[in-house]
Design goal:
alpha/beta, 6 helices, single chain, 6-stranded mixed beta sheet
């Protein structure tokens, strides 16, 4: 849990959101807030339960707050959030999906997709090098497509993808 004594909420606090529908299952607000604090940042992550039909309007409203620096994107908003970004990484542009949004200097949003990179990095950190290996991926939604991309970039020799949604 973030330590409010060492990082008290104030007018100087920087705000980040994690947006999803539903949102009650996410555990990252506390952990990411702790990581900010460990690095000396006065910043907190707040959950935002936003229905898909309201996402664009919510991002537009959130964009008006000048102390909001970032948005973590989760289910089901990863594909829709891509269209709300003025700029993106090459990875996000290829996938047409984002899981993080940060402010550009002009106040617009820059999107990136780290789900696949994080997954493959965790594999490698645990002794599994996908280079030259065959892989089966079950699920090709926002995170799944990002994992597929990262596996290909890591050099898998073959990638089979199965998804219930054609």
């Amino acid at each position: 849990m973030p330590n409010p004594t060492s990082n008290p909420l104030s007018g100087a606090t920087r705000v980040h959101f994690i947006v999803g529908d539903p949102i009650a299952q996410v555990k990252s607000p506390a952990g990411v807030s702790e990581a900010f604090h460990a690095r000396g940042h006065n910043a907190y992550v707040m959950p935002a339960h936003v229905a898909p039909a309201s996402l664009a309007q919510w991002v537009a409203g959130t964009s008006l707050a000048q102390n909001v620096d970032g948005i973590i994107v989760t289910v089901p908003h990863k594909f829709a959030s891509f269209d709300l970004c003025a700029t993106t990484s090459d990875r996000a542009a290829f996938l047409h999906t984002v899981n993080t949004m940060r402010r550009n200097a002009d106040g617009s949003w820059h999107g990136d997709m780290f789900d696949g990179l994080g997954f493959v990095s965790a594999m490698q950190d645990n002794g599994c090098n996908p280079s030259g290996k065959k892989a089966l991926l079950v699920g090709a939604g926002g995170a799944g497509s990002a994992i597929a991309h990262a596996l290909v970039m890591a050099g898998v020799s073959a990638l089979a993808i199965h998804d219930e949604d054609a």
